[in-house]
Every structure is written in C-alpha cells, then in structure tokens.
Amino acid sequence: MEDDIRFLIEILDLEQIEENIYRGHSPDWHRMPRVFGGQVASQALMAAGRTVEIGSVHSLHAYFLRLGDPTIPILYEVDRIRDGRSFTTRRVVAIQRGKAILNLDASFHIREDGPQHSVKMPEVADPESLQSLDERIDLDRPYPIDQRFIGELPWVASSVPRSPSEQIWIRANGILGDDPLVHACVITYASDMSLYDSMLFPHNLRWDDPNFRGASLDHCMWFHRSFRADEWIFYDQESPVATGGRGLARAQMFDKQGNLIISLAQEGLMRIVK
Predict the structure, then answer these.
(1) What CATH number matches the domain at 2-111+132-272, 1.10.1040.10, 2.40.160.210, 3.40.50.300, 3.40.50.720?
(2) Which of the four, 188, 209, 210, 274, has the lowest number of CB atoms within 10 Å?
(3) Considering the entire predicted model, what is its pTM?
C-alpha cells in the first residue's frame, strides 16, 4: 500500500532544470501505449504550484492536445501570467519532441470568508463496507488510488445499456504529508481514472472495443474546500449528454462528512470506426 502511493509521489516530484521549466517522467510499465492523462495534468499542476508562494489552487482547466509518449520525459514550461493580491494565475504547457501535448491553466486563491451554501451528498454505502479493487480483480501493477466502486466495475461487460452514472469512494493508497499542493495533485491524478466511464455506459461501449476510439479532450476542476486526498472522498459522476462525436461528464466530490469539496467536468472524444 505505502509502496503504491510512493510510486505516485515520485512521479509528482518533478526535476527543476531551469527557472519555470520542469521535467517529469512516466512509470516504467512497458505496456502503456500512451501517457495517462491524469498523470500529465497532475504533473502540470505540480509545476504550476512550485512557482506560487501564497494561496492554494482553486481551479484548473486542462486541454489534452496530443497523445504522450511514456518512454521519454515530459517538459513543463510555466508562464507566470499574474501574481495578484488575492489570485495568482499560471499557464503550463507540457512538451514532448518540441510539441505541446497538454495546456493547463491554474488559478490559486488566498482563502477568504464569504457566503456559504452547498448541495447535499447522496446517501450511499460506507466505503469500509465495500470491497477494494484488489479484492475484486487481480492487480498486476502499482495502484496508488484505493477505489471502492458502488455497483459493477466499469469494464465489466453488460448485455443491456447502463445508466450514465458512476459512484466511487476514493483515497490515496497510503498516507501523504501535509502539503496541500500534493493532495491537490494526487486527487487530480485520481479524478481522471474514471470520469470518462459514465459516457460509455449508455452505449455498451468499452475501451477495448476494436471499433471505438475515445480520448479525454479536456479536464476541469474547481476546488471549493480544503481536503486530504488520503482520507475517503466520495466521487459522484454522471454524463448528461453525448452527441457529435463528443461526450460530456460532470462530477462532484464530497468528503466523509458530506461537504462538497470539488466540482469537475470533462469532455471526451467518442468515435465509432468501421
């Protein structure tokens, strides 16, 4: 368990090679045909956060531009767009072979007092009552995020269309330190592991379908409250629409006490080929 999360922390520990320029690496799994989008987004957020002195991330907007090659390093160039009294803005471009593979805008905010309201968390099974992923399937690689799916696993074949929604409890598969940036990066990584799935369910599509081509096009997150990624977080996901070769997923994350901590949205390419 601790080894699994250590693997992710090492991936997020970028090498600074020049002011505003960082280098990241991908895990040596040998089977991955492309870099996992959540990895690139979380590394880009780490690069942005390394240049921010005050405030914590409150939003990120990432566009996946090209498939990443897991066999070579990724360069992250940070543009210090603005350093304000309350808000700090950064733009990060992830580069391989001289071409951008991701563009990420991140905004950091000094916490302030203000009006408060929030939706209620759905009533769901407690995470400790659910089987862990390694109890349900044989995991043959490090798995830094403990996922407790409510209901069927997303990649299980179904004879009928499923509802375009998915509910999961997630947390880091080990104890993290107290750096809020690390927790934000870990949950960014985790958020891209399942958000796309709800787009597939109504169409009985799976990633390994030879006639299907899918990819995340963008990924957006709004961080509302402080949280710990090594404590249970309820991840409630749904896809309201798919049309024109694209699908949309949106989601909310709640802490164990029922507080809404993060809102998310993602658009994905959905293409059927003959």
Answers:
(1) 2.40.160.210
(2) 274
(3) 0.95
